[in-house]
Amino acid sequence: MAESSSKPNVLIFGGLNTYSRAITGYMVPEGSEPLVSHVRIVDKYSVHPATTYLGVEFTNILQRPEVEYKQANLTVPSIAQSMFDPPDGQAPYDYVFDLTGEIRPDRTDMIQVNTTCNVSRFLGQEAAKRNVKAYIRVTLPFYETSSKATTSEKDIKPHGTIGTWWHETLRVLGAIEDLNLVILRIGFAYGPYIDYGEMTTFITVAAVYGYLKSPMKSLWSPGKNPMNTVHSDDIAGAAWACAQWMASQGRRAANASAGEELVFHNDKSKLKSVEGMIPHDKKIIAPLFNLVDDSQSTLLSVGQAVTSFFGTTFDFFNLPERTVYKFMDDDKAVEDINEHHVGGWTTMILNSNPPIPHTPLSAYMDQYALEKRTVALDSTKIKQIVGYKLKRPEFKHDAIKDIVDKWKDEQSWPIL
Question: For residue 329, what are the domain limits?
Answer without folding.
Answer: 198-226+297-370
